[in-house]
Design brief:
Elements lengths: L1 E4 L6 E9 L2 E9 L2 H11 L4 H8 L11 H16 L2
Antiparallel strand pairs: 1-2, 2-3
Helix pairs in contact: 2-3
């Protein structure tokens, strides 16, 4: 399942994620803090989407109620939900 997700409340503009059989195959994030997001993306490839969601959900950025990792968890939740259909 490939998904292009538009995050809310963060610097990143688009999160392209690919999940197959519950495993993260690819993540490409446009905008945001490039080095940090590239690093996070590389660490997540091969991990189960459920594990990544558990680790990143609720992470905040400064005083914001969300963050790029939190928004990426939301994108993965949508991807998993659609992958199971």
């Amino acid at each position: 399942m490939k998904l292009s997700y538009s995050p809310e409340g963060v610097c990143a503009q688009t999160m392209n994620v690919e999940v197959e059989e519950g495993k993260i195959l690819n993540i490409d994030i446009i905008g945001g803090c490039s080095g940090n997001l590239q690093g996070i993306s590389r660490l997540l490839v091969g991990m189960s989407a459920e594990e990544a969601i558990a680790r990143m959900s609720g992470v905040r950025c400064g005083g914001k109620p969300t963050s790029c990792p939190d928004q990426l968890a939301k994108a993965l939740e949508v991807c998993l939900k659609n992958d199971k259909k």
